[in-house]
Design brief:
Elements (H helix, E strand, L loop, with lengths): L1 H26 L39 E2 L5 H4 L3 H15 L8 E4 L4 H15 L2 H4 L17 E3 L2 H10 L5 E3 L7 E4 L17
Antiparallel strand pairs: 1-2, 2-3, 3-5, 4-5
The structure holds zinc ion.
């Protein structure tokens, strides 16, 4: 009797655990704030540093902040030049004759140290490296570490790239990450099918 009575509770607990896991996984690659302690970005050029000691040199961008495509900070300047140039061309087309809002980056190039920090956070949350590897990539396995991926900050730009990005070869890669773009086709080509599991 005890085992049958406790079953619904176990199911409820595992559902709660799964949604926690999902929200943490998204936080690793998400432009939405996730509670990381950080100083606000400063226009005065002072170094931004996270609670974990990550800085501009790691490509660290505080939650809630974003960078324009002409930023000289490493998160943008160390992106693959082809990716950056495709994004700038898309931005020009998006803005047209107006000087509307451009494309801003919530996450771009990341150091391996930064990626390992995200992985270590995932290990803490999931309890094992094996489980964490299902959700967060390690080191240069991440397209962000290779400078080949950006997470778009602005919803309007995200929407524009989702509609027209393939004109410049820009594709949404993961079905559950509307913000994560990589060069995945020739300009004007068709984007490959989106992968269901985002762990960029
Ligand atoms: Zn991403």
């Amino acid at each position: 009797m005890h085992s049958t009575a406790s079953r619904p509770l176990r199911v409820a607990l595992s559902v709660a655990a799964a949604s926690l896991v999902l929200s943490v996984a998204l936080a690793g690659c998400s432009p939405t704030p996730s509670g990381t302690l950080a100083q606000p970005a400063s226009a005065g050029g002072s170094v931004t540093e996270s609670a974990a000691g990550l800085t501009d040199d790691d490509g660290y961008i505080p939650d809630g902040s974003s960078l324009p495509l002409d930023s000289d900070l490493p998160a943008v300047s160390r992106l693959d030049p082809d990716l950056l140039s495709a994004l700038k061309d898309a931005q020009d087309a998006m803005q047209g004759d107006s000087s509307g809002p451009g494309i801003t980056i919530a996450d771009g190039w990341r150091s391996e140290r930064y990626q390992e920090h995200l992985f270590a956070q995932a290990v803490q949350e999931y309890g094992s490296e094996e489980e964490a590897e299902k959700w967060v990539k390690r080191g240069s396995d991440s397209a962000h570490v290779r400078g080949e991926a950006v997470d778009i900050a602005d919803a309007g730009a995200m929407d524009y790239l989702n509609r027209y990005g393939s004109e410049w070869g820009l594709c949404q890669v993961y079905a559950n990450e509307a913000w994560h773009f990589e060069l995945r086709t020739e300009p004007g080509g068709d984007c490959p099918a989106q992968s269901p599991d985002g762990r960029g």
